[in-house]
Amino acid sequence: MHAEFCKAMLRSGGNTLVGPILNYVAACQNPDGSWNEVHVNYNEPSALITAFIGDALIEAADRHPHEDALERARDFVLAAERSPGCFLKSAGYTADHLNVDASCGAFLARYAERYDDREARAAARRAAENVVFHQRDGVYPYAVDKGTYPYVFDLPCIHYQGVTIYYLAKANDVLCDDRIDRSIAEAARWLAAAQRPDGRFDWSGSGLSFACYLSGAYAFAQASFTYASRLDDRYREHADRSLGWLDANVRGLAPRWEPGSWGDLPLSVAAAVKSASLGGYPLRHRAFRFGYGVYREVARRRYSATAETRAFEALSGLLGIRSSTVEPSKNFPDLFMTSEMLDCLSQSMIWGKNT
């Protein structure tokens, strides 16, 4: 969140908080150059988080330099490449996540551009090529192997489709590879097909349970469509739809999830059935996915100023499932979603000026 906020403020002209925030962030860096991903279920060094923070340090390098921290971040992310273009997210999550590869690639590409670093540029290209290689019918699946997960989460996901496009586009701002742009165009086509005329997404074809209805998906989509409009002008309309949704639903801090009305709950439950069926998983896991989906449908229609998770923990315990996250039982103001929106929308302003 610190990194995304700082990037947005810097792109918007600066803020007196940026310097102190980055000083704090630099002081939190681990000796090996990494930063931890601090999560409800774990707290461990992460190439993904290191890439996010490294990108913010590049954005701030002229006004708030942290050269030593930035170089050590570069070294850590390079060392996280376990096979060509595949970057290890963390010790606890070892699957090949394409959004992680794209994020690491974007950081390394920008580092290479600033410091004329051939090794970083080559690694960024491998990351992008790995993402493009695994694309199928426009989709960037969430994960392409099992790693430490109980199953392979080779699933389409609206939220992470936008995330992967976004960071792949940032990498290609430096790499300028037509193959990557063609891949992004295919990915944007899939994402556009999932969007309704009113800007909302049809989540029934999005199979990653914990990422369904995340409000940040609309900001990643808006930025991704803005970049894609360089390649095909029709995506301007989809960028506008996404921005319209954000304008209608975000006041101050963004809600964790896309809000819903009780009147359309039956349709949403039907969508949860379709989403739960994706992936061909064993019956017990499909049942958990469906239960997760219905729980989410109810939760996003209720509101609270705080996050309460006991109901979700009880559901997971009842089914004997080890979930990768813990979900509150009500929608709530979410600083993390808000920081992602600030990052995406401020980057979109830059891309929009170049279209």
Give the helix/strand class.
mainly alpha
Could you tell me how far the N terminus lies from the C terminus, measured between alpha carbons in angstroms? Answer: 28 Å
Helix-strand string = HHEEHHEEHHHHHHEHHHEH
Q: Which architecture does the CATH hierarchy give at level 2?
A: Alpha/alpha barrel
Helix content: 55-70%
Average pLDDT confidence is: 95
CATH topology: Glycosyltransferase
* Share in β-strands: under 5%
Biggest sheet, open or closed, and with what strands and sense?
Answer: 2 strands, antiparallel
Q: Overall 3D geometry?
A: globular
Overall tally of structural domains: 1
Number of β-strand runs: 6
**CATH C-level:** Mainly Alpha
Write a brief structural summary.
It is built from 14 helices and six strands. The protein is mainly alpha-helical.
Topology, element by element:
Layout: H1 2-11, H2 18-27, E1 35-38, E2 43-46, H3 47-59, H4 67-79, E3 81-83, E4 86-87, H5 98-115, H6 118-133, H7 158-175, H8 178-193, H9 216-228, H10 235-249, E5 254-255, H11 265-277, H12 283-299, H13 310-319, E6 333-334, H14 335-353
Antiparallel strand pairs: 1-2, 3-4, 5-6
Helix pairs in contact: 1-2, 1-3, 1-14, 3-4, 3-5, 5-6, 5-7, 6-7, 7-8, 7-9, 8-9, 9-10, 9-14, 11-12, 12-13
Task: Describe, in plain words, how this protein is organized in 3D.
With 355 residues, the protein is mainly alpha-helical. It has one domain: Glycosyltransferase. Helices cover 57% and strands 5% of the residues. A hairpin with a 2-residue loop joins strand 3 and strand 4 (86-87). The model has no long low-confidence stretch (mean pLDDT 95).
